[in-house]
# Entry
Amino acid sequence: MAQAVSQTSYENRQSSTAFGELEPVQKPFVWLGVLISALLFITIVQVTTWTQGVLFIIGLAFGLALLYARFGFTSAFRRLISVGNVQGLQAHMLMLAVATTLFAIILATGFSFTGVAPQGYVFPAGLSVVAGSFMFGIGMQMGSGCASGTLYTVGGGKSSMVITLLGFIGGSVLGAYHIGFWRDLPSLPAISLAESTGLGYFGGWVLQILIFLGIYGATVKFARKKNPPQMKPLTTTSGWKKLWRGAWPLLVAAVILGILNAITLSVRGNPWGITSAFALWGSKFLQIFGVDVASWTYWQGGTEALNKTVLADSTSVMNFGIILGAFIAASFQGNFKPGKIKPGVAAASIIGGGLMGYGARLAFGCNIGAYFGGIASFSLHGWVWMIMALAGTYLALFIRPLFGLKNPSPKDSMC
# Structure
């Protein structure tokens, strides 16, 4: 009887949104965000190409979806490890299933909107990935945001995330400087679960869908048994206003993110990424002071990006779009309200950002490029990243309280 009550309680609290009173629209901020976005789009197209302009618009869409759903990778891992909440991980599995399906079609057929041959993120799974993703797992819990989370919360007005972003850029530059050492460590070759196994993209798709279903099914059983506190529902409204005023359901955002990543692959020829831009921004900054970053191993594959405007870098323009899209969404919701930063939070933010930046360079990407893009591209290194980032999250739960950061508790009604 108690088990039945527990299961019913769990199933009745699954909604990620709830009707409620919304804050007034911050119209000046909305118009400011729209104006800056329009001007930046025009500048990007004039200085570079229409393709870059399209990628900027895709970035805006990513920012809107991330903020409206408060779609988290950091919080999903933290809730899973600390109290057994599986809602975030379940959303990840849906997102990955959608992206994997579309990626399989695109990569198998070579489909492209721009004529650029699509290539997934398939990289070696070595000690650098193991170490880098473990560092990233610690860092994202210390910095209270992953790569995508840092960008959209900066746009959403969370003051401490500006510090996390600065640490992220610094760590990315340091990781780029040290990359030669890490890439010389033992490693497996780049392994694609589609091409390297002989399964092909259809066989690889079947394999990964089975894995996603297995993980999803395991989380359902786990949650029914553990009955963890659920995510606090986000306030939303009804009708068409929900599109720009209220919160979006988590699973809806998961589908949208999967589709947007596939569109990105078909436009620029690579999946969505974030952190390579941080290494570029930091390296270009050091160049101003005469540092010969072009001699670093990281830049030996090509220094063109160092000599061009950042608007020519597709990852950079998408990052700008994410920040602005989140700013517009937060303003529509009336939630753009930067606040004070506590010293402990500031320290954790800079340390966490640094660990994420450094770890992302070692692991061939972050939660987006390595985890999301890697797994959707059928890369073994994406699965290694997921496991090690979860391990890093586990360790970080013991460190966070030292900086005044709270972890979810089994006694919470919501987390």
Notes: The beta strands are 17-19, 124-126, 187-190, 234-236.
